[in-house]
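Standup notes
- DV: blocked on the single-chain target, sequence here:
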Amino acid sequence: MASNPDWLDTGDNAWQLTAASFVALQSVPGLLVLYAGIVKSKWAINSAFMSLYAFACVLICWTIWGYKVAFGNQMLPFAGYPAPVMTIEHELEQAVLPTAGLSPNFPQATMVYFQFVFAAITVIILSGALLGRMNFLAWMIFVPFWLTFSYCIGAFSLWGGGFLYKLGTIDYSGGYVIHLSSGTAGFVAAYWVGPRTDVDRADNRPNNMLCVLIGAGILWIGWNGFNGGDPYAASADAGVAVLNTNVCTAMSLLTWMVMDILVFKKPSILGAVNGMITGLVGITPAAGVVATWGAVCIGFATGTIPWMSMNGLKRYKFFHAVDDTLGIFHTHCVAGFVGGFCTGLFATTPGCAAFGITNPGGAIEGNGIQLGYQMAGACFIIGWNVVWTSLILLAIKLVGIPLRMTEEQLLVGDDAIHGESAYVFDDLIRLNGSDFRAQSNGDGELGIMGQELGNNHSITPAVNKPVTGKGTGEEVKTD
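- DV (later): unblocked, structure below
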């Protein structure tokens, strides 16, 4: 057996790889399954496929150039020099973040993979604002450009040794880098892509609540690696981060549920899932630097403020016009902002020291300037994402690639885009010369993946035989 180098701590390396695997599972299958279940059945395949594509695409871009832009030698105050991470010699070396001056006791390969899973989940979260209408080709092009010009910039600025890192902005595990950026970019992208069809917006009931709960459960438990892995060691502070993550999440879920009961007179499982997510997001920038009582306070804030924004801002014309499919703006942008602000309030001196940073705590420790540092970081992330998300999408549109699906694709859904359906039935419908699978919704009406075509249809085994029925003159056939 080959001997290990002196710098390698096998416990740290084992925990880091485990934490990275937890975060990877949050994306695939976590959010993939959650998205597939929370949309209408006609969008289940497309929604899941957007996540699967993003996960694969980000990994290739990450190893070729992205990692070094986010964590390499400084080129600009907010970016490192792009370079590949491809040689075995480099991957076996001790991990080094040269601009930040950090050298964890595990290999470079472990660090590259650990940071990749954060980059991937950020893009996947962003996609939640665009489900049900974004052109898949446009999405394929958008992902590598947004990763490069948006995510990597935020990561270097706050984690890789950039100007916000040096300023003293605290982002323990991605409240700003991941959630504030994806929430902002998702909302901006939803504006440029345009809304779903009126029918899809009016009836947007989930097709499989059990899938939603399975995905939500993977997301919650996976967050133990999300926040517990960021001390880069199997340390005492990692344990604090894991405990605070779960306490804050539980508090936020219960608070959101109580808000639903007080206002809508009944508890909602979707509301509970939203509260869970806002709690996870809100504790992320603070996880290992606050006391557990601080985590409870953050959970209360993330269970109320995003609830009010989600249920209040939609009354305003602009927020109603921008079709953020899953409310990513509220659950990630608003919750991330709240969590970042609360970090400036509740950060403790011992917690900061345990995390290995020199900040003397937050406002409760008499360091009120930390609130200013937190707001500076938030303003940069929001502003950068508004500008660069807009530029990337406008550039894609400028070269002739539509951002939105065709009307036919919007009507039919998965079968028109991918030739596949989440729930396969025998009946097909012919639309504009092409065959698409159809399903019965159980009340005698024929629908294309949930879109009703009318009743009184008489489907016969004859191929391409016209069938009459209210609302359509199309042809229906069976396999």
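- Follow-up: Residues 439-479 have pLDDT under 50 and may be disordered.
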